[in-house]
Specification:
about 150 residues, 9 strands, Immunoglobulin-like, alpha+beta, about 30% helix, four-stranded mixed beta sheet
Length: about 150
Amino acid sequence: MSALVAVALTARGPAVEQSAVQKPGYRLRTVWFRGLGAVAIVAFVLSLPAFPYRHRSQAAEAQHHPVTALQFAFVMPPVLPFDTPIVLDVTATDVNHGIGIYDPDGRIIAQVQAMPGYTNPLPVVFKKPGQYVVLCMEYCGIAHHIMRGSFEVR
């Protein structure tokens, strides 16, 4: 309400010539545009070291383990190595599935799409030993809500 009153009071004055406000307005717009561009570039450069994807060379040297999703289960190794770079080669036999891996504390640590006829590599290093849970993250049919798997990291 106070904003409306403020606008009403300032609008009561004499009309201002368009050219009197146009030049300062464009100058302000240019300063804002350049400033925001500089902030975006700096933020991008500073975030590069934290980029979440591993280098391909690390994935090539890692152990590979197959994971297959099917309605309504996961076929995967029962035990995976602790603190070792591995690649889960994820595929599906029937429909698309989303595979989400949750650590023993219930936090999601990795996810990937499982698609029929295609293998998606999922590089991961398990930093905590214990029981990990795998849940389907894409609706895949009537029993989607019970689709889960697990494996142990040791």
